[in-house]
Design goal:
- The chain is built from 21 helices and no strands.
- The longest helix is centred in the middle third of the chain and has 37 residues.
- The chain is globular and about 60 Å long.
- Helices cover 75% and strands 0% of the residues.
- The protein has one domain: MFS general substrate transporter like domains (Growth Hormone, Chain: A, Up-down Bundle).
- With 436 residues, the chain is mostly helical.
Length: 436
């Protein structure tokens, strides 16, 4: 299928699992925040001012995740060019799995923040290793398909996180009836990737085209005259996509809670309704993301990378404005989350093939990690800023509508030529790979 060998499918599946569990572990906190934050702050979720505190801490810890994610991506991006793709993949998965499970034992919000920071280092590092592994194990002409298929693991990881949260905080009464315990059980499921990591290491070898670098890759090399434009363009595309995604997806539970608050229910039933609303909104967003991710293949193949970014960013702005417009009933709005899912989420299907295309092999992990993760540093300001605004009691729907400005800026970036067109271009050091 798709002209790939059995071993190439194995490599793709290994990286797919790594990235899927990466997203799974990364987003668990977002889903359990309505239970986790008041528990660790020792306040009642229904107490005056509690809602604003939950919004603030959810945003703050998501911003911390992004900063750690960025640091881990840059650090492990260099490591993956130095010690190899599969070794780095193993290390990063063990780091984020162990740290996520440790969150289950956090006695207060500050210890939770430390564990989340540790997890984010591994989460950020896994992306560069996995993307480089796929890019170098597949023939150059198959990278678009491989990259897009790799990113379908992101919505799958979110589906799993959504289901686990719903199972332990709403459906499974033995655990769900005790909110102080249920969120801790959710975090413990973060250990699953550790088992997968060992299986990957046993069955996947380093790409034949990769060999240890003769010298340590340096960030400064990304800004030489030959690569400067590629680095700036890759960073610009990543910042737009990341800022838009985190400003929408990370606040799905916040929006769900806001929409559920009008229901006249007991605190326990209200909590279950909020989880139910979160499940509907997140599922719609993830389904849209799965469709949008797969659509990057034909769009990038037939029209090129620059037209693809133009279309996705333009439609992202429209989708956000429509989905968060006033006067829509709660259930319809939750299902409409599929619209930004297709565009805001879907565009990420391109980064697993686009960023590796910008850099030669010896700098591929370093360059991809730099663009994607410095983008996260810049992005970290936005969830925190939104959290500060929501802490004042502002309407989250009105705030999220303004996020539509970000993809509009992305459209402008494309029009002025910041997005490099890599269609049909193969780096000089990959002649052999292209012929395979």
């Amino acid at each position: 299928m798709f002209g790939l060998t059995r071993y190439q499918w194995l490599v793709l599946f290994a990286a797919w699992l790594g990235w899927g569990f990466d997203v799974f572990d990364g987003l668990l906190f977002t889903y359990v925040a309505p239970l986790c934050v008041p528990s660790l702050l020792h306040i009642e979720a229904t107490a005056p001012g509690a809602k604003e505190e939950i919004f603030f801490w959810t945003a703050s810890l998501n911003s911390l995740l992004l900063l750690g994610w960025a640091a881990g991506g840059i650090l492990f991006g260099k490591i993956t060019d130095r010690i190899g793709r599969t070794r780095t993949l193993l290390i990063t998965m063990l780091v984020y799995a162990g740290s996520t499970a440790a969150c289950a034992f956090a006695p207060n919000i500050w210890v939770l923040a430390i564990f989340r920071l540790c997890a984010s280092l591994g989460i950020g590092g896994e992306w560069a290793a996995g993307a480089s592994l796929v890019a170098e194990s597949l023939p150059a002409r198959k990278r678009i398909v491989g990259g897009a298929l790799l990113y379908t693991s992101a919505p799958m990881g979110l589906f799993l996180a959504t289901y686990v949260n719903d199972l332990f905080t709403r459906q499974l009464d033995v655990i769900a009836k005790n909110p102080q315990t249920s969120w801790r059980v959710v975090f413990l499921t973060g250990l699953i990737p550790a088992i997968v990591a060992f299986l990957i290491r046993l069955n996947v070898k380093e790409p034949e085209s990769w060999s240890a670098a003769e010298h340590t890759p340096r960030i400064a090399e990304l800004f030489t005259p030959a690569l400067r434009r590629h680095t700036i363009g890759g960073l610009a595309m990543a910042v737009v996509a990341l800022t838009t995604w985190w400003s929408c997806s990370a606040f799905i539970p916040v929006i769900a809670s806001y929409l559920a608050n009008d229901a006249a229910l007991t605190p326990q039933d209200l909590g279950k309704l909020k989880t139910h609303f979160t499940t509907i909104g997140a599922t719609a967003f993830n389904l849209g993301g799965l469709v949008g991710t797969l659509l990057t293949v034909p769009v990038a193949t037939y029209f090129g990378r620059r037209p693809m970014f133009f279309v996705y960013y333009l439609l992202s702005a429209i989708a956000i404005m429509v989905t968060f417009a006033p006067g829509i009933d709660p259930m319809t709005r939750l299902y409409m989350m599929a619209l930004p899912g297709v565009t805001v989420f879907g565009v990420f299907g391109s980064f697993t093939f686009y960023l590796p295309e910008l850099f030669p092999m010896r700098l591929r992990g370093t360059g991809s990690g730099f663009c994607y993760n410095i983008g996260r540093v810049i992005t970290a300001c936005f969830p925190f800023g939104i959290g500060l605004i929501l802490r004042t009691g502002a309407n989250p729907l009105a705030i999220i509508r303004w996020v539509a400005v970000v993809p509009v800026i992305g459209v402008i970036f494309v029009l002025v030529g910041l997005a490099e067109e890599t269609k049909g271009k193969i780096p000089d050091d990959e002649t052999a790979a292209a012929a395979s």
